[in-house]
Every structure is written in structure tokens, then in C-alpha cells.
Design brief:
Shape: globular
Distance between the termini: 54 Å
Mean pLDDT: 91
Number of helices: 12
Structural class: alpha+beta
Radius of gyration: 21 Å
Largest sheet: 4 strands, parallel
Helix content: 25-40%
Number of strands: 21
Length: 426
């Protein structure tokens, strides 16, 4: 694996991003200097000892000044944003530094469910009926709206990972769902994100079908797919907990072609131009629907399920892409892979996990990472903002990889005790 000439990449992320270590390890392997820009207090002297540039994603002017000051010391050759919140600042930073990236309005649209649907609809792509309401609108008034149909789905505009997403099949269920999401958006931890999207809810039609995810990259307007993931568990609600991603997909060849064509159309509709792309889609009786097309790589540790020939990681390929290297020759390895995002079974304080060694003995299991910390407050969906951890498998076929993560999960036991009240901002 060859090292590149000295290059410097700016990586924007929240301070809790799972992928930071993976990017750092990849950068060291290929000789890239990685400079982090993370949301932290600029009054503290490097609290995480990573020499990151302190930024605030909602204070763009001051954050860009800090990034430009660092660039004056030594130039950057690429910019990568990890997670939804950093994407707009990442786009603005690339523009300010004269580097390839996405237009800021396209990055903002990718993280806003309402704007995404509006842009897709304008280009003739499939979009469910939808409208937005202010977060404090009484749900009992909304059910009288002539636009309401059932089944429908209530979604916060600015949250991801199925957080706060609830299906309702009746007016009574809609009232319960709406009030539950409204309570979630009043929480201090949610409002502290300051995305500017905390005060609106999206109401839209439920889309029947199976879900898939697509990972790839845009290079000056051209899309290159890296992987298509099947989500084998039915995601029909009332909550939409993603658990397993498996690749390669078992979709037929023609359907895969049409899916990738739709991703290109969606990326073009949003105005995405250069950088990582992660898309979530549904395929059913009504066709292909793009639920989300994010200007970022796949989240958390799930990137480990994307492996290129020669055991090259997604983070390495994205770093090479960021500095202008041609990555079209990097092909996905032949083995199938699966990742399970371990679901949280109940609300409470995490104490311990058992059965890890037994789970590791399952044929095909590559790794098990428990990311929850002792005494951390855990919540299941729709309020959940994290997972218990991740299970990774590699096998000869997608079916075997999926079986491995399911079997390993059966062998794990979790001790979760007690609970403490949730604090709201009101």
C-alpha cells in the first residue's frame, strides 16, 4: 500500500464522532496529515489532546476564520465532513480554501428532509405527499387538516438515524406520535445542536417497501458507487430501527442499475458536486424513493462494512479522493460483509454486557465493539441517539454474513438498570 506525497486534509466532525479514529489510522497509513475541526469550547486548551481547531457549526463566520488561520500556517489539500451537522461548514470551508466541495446550499438541503423532498419533486423524482408544521402545533388540530392521510409518518426535520421517526395509522395514533416527537425536540440535548431545524416537524405518507443504502462519492459532479447495502429487517414501523446492513446486495442487476441511476438524479437535484455520499432508499410497489441523500460518508463504525480489495478501508479511499487522487480503480473486495447496529432493548443505565466471547466464536464474526459506557443512559427508539455497539461479519455470501451477526447477537446479554427523568428545555 503506497504512501502519498505529503498532503494535508481538514476533517470536520462532532467531538463524539466514531469515525475519527478510523480516519486518523488511515491517514497515518498513507502519509496524510489530518487536521480535525470539531465543535468544542475555544476557551479550553486542547481538552481532547488532538490539536483540533475549535469550531461551532452554527457560528460559521468565526469558525471559517479559525480554519483560515490554520490554513495560513500550512495549506490544506482537501476537506471532509463527517456527520450531518458539519456538512454546511465543510462546504463553506472548501469554498474559502479554494478546494473542491459541495455548494453550501446543497449541503444544507441534504440535511433538511423538507428541502430534500422539495428539490427531488421539482426534478420529477418519487416523493411522498408531505407538509411541515411548527413543533408546538397541537396535534389534535393537525388531524383536521385536509392533507392528512393514513398511514403517515412523523419526522423531525433535522435528526438522523431514524431518531424521532414514528408511523401512525389512525388519527389517534398520529396525536400520540406527534406529541412524542414534540417532547423529543424540546430536550436540551436536541436543542443544543442548534441546527435551525428544531422547530418544525415533517408529516408525510408512509412508503411501503424494502430499504437499501448506497455508499459512494461525487467527483466534480460524477457519481461513483462503492456499495449497495440491503437492510434485511422489515422497517414498517411504528419505529424504524435500522439494525443490519449487508453487502453485496441481492437485488437483481436491472434494479441495481435503476437504483444507482436514481441516486445520480437525486444528487444532481440537490446540487451535490464533490465529496462522500450516503443515500437511503425504499423500493416497493410505487417505485424507488430516495429517503435521504447525505453529503457525508456512512455514519458511526458502519464504514467498516465497506472494504476494498487489499483490505483498504473506506476512510483511506475518501482521504485519497479528498486530495485529488483518482479512486475509480478501487474496487470492493469479493467477500460479503454485514454490520449489526446493536439495538437498545429498554431505557435505563447500562451496566455490563455478557456473552462476548461466545459471540466472537460464531463463524464469520470479525469483531464486536461495545460502544456504550458503563452507567450511560440508554434509550430505545424513537428517542435513542446511539446504539449499544456494533457486530461485524465477513463471509462468502451475504446470507452467511447476515446469519453470523444475528447468531452473535443472540449470544449477547445486556444488563440495563433503572432510569432517570429526561430534562426538557422548557
Amino acid at each position: 500500500m503506497s504512501k502519498m506525497p505529503a498532503r494535508r486534509v481538514l476533517l470536520l466532525s462532532t467531538t463524539t464522532g466514531y469515525q475519527l479514529r478510523s480516519f486518523d489510522e488511515a491517514a497515518r497509513r498513507i502519509g496524510v496529515e489530518l487536521v480535525f475541526a470539531t465543535d468544542r469550547c475555544n476557551q479550553l486548551e486542547d481538552p481532547w489532546r488532538d490539536r483540533a481547531i475549535p469550531v461551532r457549526f452554527h457560528r460559521e463566520r468565526a469558525s471559517l476564520a479559525a480554519i483560515s488561520h490554520e490554513a495560513s500556517r500550512a495549506p490544506f489539500h482537501g476537506v471532509i465532513a463527517v456527520g450531518d451537522r458539519p456538512t454546511v461548514l465543510g462546504a463553506l470551508a472548501a469554498q474559502a480554501l479554494g478546494l473542491p466541495g459541495n455548494p453550501a446550499d446543497a449541503a444544507a438541503a441534504s440535511a433538511n428532509k423538507r428541502e430534500t423532498r422539495a428539490r427531488l419533486a421539482r426534478e420529477g423524482l418519487n416523493v411522498p405527499w408531505n407538509f411541515t408544521i411548527p413543533v408546538r402545533t397541537p396535534a389534535r388540530e393537525v388531524v383536521k387538516d385536509s392533507r392528512m392521510k393514513y398511514p403517515c409518518v412523523v419526522k423531525p426535520l433535522g435528526l438522523s438515524g431514524s431518531r424521532g421517526v414514528i408511523r401512525a395509522d389512525t388519527p389517534a395514533a398520529f396525536v400520540v406520535a406527534c406529541e412524542r416527537v414534540q417532547a423529543l425536540l424540546e430536550r436540551l440535548d436536541v436543542r443544543a445542536n442548534r441546527t435551525g431545524l428544531e422547530n418544525l416537524l415533517l408529516v408525510e405518507g408512509f412508503i411501503p417497501g424494502r430499504e437499501f443504502a448506497v455508499e459512494g462519492v461525487m467527483t466534480h459532479g460524477a457519481f461513483q458507487p462503492f456499495a449497495i447495502f440491503d437492510k434485511p429487517d422489515p422497517l414498517d414501523g411504528p419505529f424504524f430501527e435500522e439494525t443490519i446492513y449487508v453487502t453485496p446486495s441481492i437485488l437483481g442487476g436491472l434494479t441495481q442499475v435503476r437504483l444507482l441511476e436514481t441516486i445520480v438524479e437525486a444528487a444532481t437535484a440537490l446540487g451535490l458536486w464533490h465529496g462522500p455520499v450516503h443515500a437511503e432508499c425504499r423500493i416497493g410497489p410505487e417505485g424507488i424513493f430516495v429517503l435521504e441523500i447525505a453529503a457525508r460518508p456512512i455514519g458511526g463504525l458502519c464504514s467498516r462494512a465497506v472494504r476494498f480489495q487489499g483490505a483498504v478501508t473506506l476512510e483511506e479511499v475518501l482521504l485519497r479522493h479528498a486530495v485529488g487522487e483518482d479512486v475509480t480503480a478501487w474496487g470492493q473486495e469479493n467477500a460479503a460483509s454485514a454490520v449489526m447496529m446493536i439495538p437498545i432493548p429498554q431505557r435505563g443505565l447500562f451496566k455490563e454486557v455478557g456473552g462476548v466471547e461466545a459471540a466472537r466464536e460464531v463463524v464469520g464474526i470479525e469483531d464486536i465493539r461495545i460502544t456504550a459506557k458503563k452507567d450511560q443512559l440508554l434509550e430505545p427508539l424513537p428517542e435513542a441517539g446511539s446504539y449499544l455497539g456494533f457486530i461485524f461479519a465477513r463471509a462468502r455470501s451475504s446470507m452467511e454474513a447476515e446469519f453470523a451477526v444475528r447468531e452473535a447477537h443472540k449470544r449477547l446479554t445486556f444488563t440495563i438498570q433503572g432510569a432517570i427523568p429526561v430534562r426538557s428545555a422548557s
